[in-house]
Structures are given as structure tokens and as C-alpha cells.
Amino acid sequence: MAERTKIDARGAFCPGPLMELIAALKLIEVGDEVEIWSSDKGSAKDIPEWVAKVGHEMVGVENMEGYDSIVVRKAK
Amino acid sequence: MTSQPLYILLCSGEHEKIQMAAMMASVGAVSDRAVHVFVSMNAMFAFDKDAPPAERYRGGTFSGLLKEKGVPDAINLFEQGKMLGDLKMYVCSMALDVSGWDENRLVDGLFDEAMGLTKFLSDAEGGQFVTL
Question: Is residue B82 in a domain?
């Protein structure tokens, strides 16, 4: 069962949420996940783009009230 | 496919341009891309390790917004790029000579070495080049 680390990056501006996500991914095991909450309007597109480029896996993006919940699985 | 290295020539002392250089450098470096930043002219003064926070960045209207909203600090972004990705930073040897500064006056641990423009331009052949 994958473990999930949650990060509340609401209120942080670009590229803060992405950098927080990357720092968190460094600390978890392959197969585990990070769920990051971001109110930065670019994150819902920027983070999936970064995930595809570097070879991790997107689990999903959910639009919440005033922020996005973005879940990424560490793949390498 | 390996991405082209990104070479950023940062010579403006404007806060907005330093911030954009820091954003490009940090995001590029954590995206499996080698990034090289060459700092010269007025930009170098923003990297004075003894500069009071309120005086480090000088700019226009958007600089005021960046400070007011608390966006990530440019120097912190450069540090994150180095810590999490492949980012190298160089200070212009001419800028050091003309200003009378030495590398010890710059933010600790941020710069890899002093370099001349000729070497930087030579290294940058074949990469993507951005001037700010």
C-alpha cells in the first residue's frame, strides 16, 4: 500500500509549490505518493508537465474550492 | 531525449529580471536540464552576502508586488536549484575586478567559480541562451 505525504502549499507563489513537491519526492520511497495543495493557478498544468518530463507518474488533479489538489507517484 | 543546456546571462540589477532568472534557473535545473548562470554588471550587487534584505532587490512596480506578496526569494530559488538540480553559477571576473569585490563578498556557497565571458560564451555554444 502506497504511503501518501500531504503538503499544504496554498498561498505559495510559482515556483514554490513545485519546489516543495520536488523536495518531498526526494524523501519518499519509489511507489509512494505526494499530495500537494496549491492555490497557484499555474500548478495544475505546470506540475503535470514537470512530472511527464522527469518520468514520475500523475495520479490526478482535483479542482477544489480556491485551490488544486495534485497527487504524484514517485516512479524512479 | 536530453534537453539542451540552458545558459542565462544575468546582468540587470532590476529585481524583476533577477527574479525571472532565478525562476528559470531553478525550474530548469530540477527538470533534468543543466543550467548555467553567469552574473555580471549591476546584477552582482544583489548577491552581496551582507546586503540588508530590504535593500537587496531594487526594481519597479512589480518588484513592490513581489515583496508585498512574499514570492519565493530569488537567492533562495537559486540555492534550491543547486540543491535539487543541476545548476552552476558563475560570477563575472570583470565585474569583480571593476568593482574591487572578491568572491568572499558574495552569498556563501552559491557561486561555483569566477569566470570570464569568453569561456562562458564558448561553453554556451549549442545550448539555449537567455540574457536578462
Answer: yes
Q: Which chain A residues are closer than 8 Å to B26 by Cβ?
A: 15, 19
Measured CA to CA, the distance from residue A12 to residue A29 in angstroms comes to 25
What does DSSP say about strands A68-73 and A57-63: parallel, antiparallel, or unpaired? Answer: antiparallel
Please confirm, yes or no, whether A14 is among the known catalytic residues. yes
Residue of B nearest to A48 (CA): B31
pLDDT tens digits along A12-21 = 999 999 999 9
CB contact under 8 A, B30 and A16: no
Angle at which helix B74-84 crosses helix A16-27, to 10 degrees, equals 30
Query: Scanning the structure block, which residue is given the C-alpha cell 569568453?
Result: B118
CATH of the domain at B92: 3.40.1260.10
Nearest CA in chain B to A51: B31
Distance, CA of B54 to CA of B99 (rounded, Å): 22
Residue B66 identity: L
Give residue B83's domain range: 37-131
Supply the CATH classification number for the domain A4-73.
3.30.110.40
| Domain ranges (residues) in chain A | 4-73
Judge: B72–A12 Cβ closer than 8 Å, yes or no: yes
ipTM of the assembly? 0.79
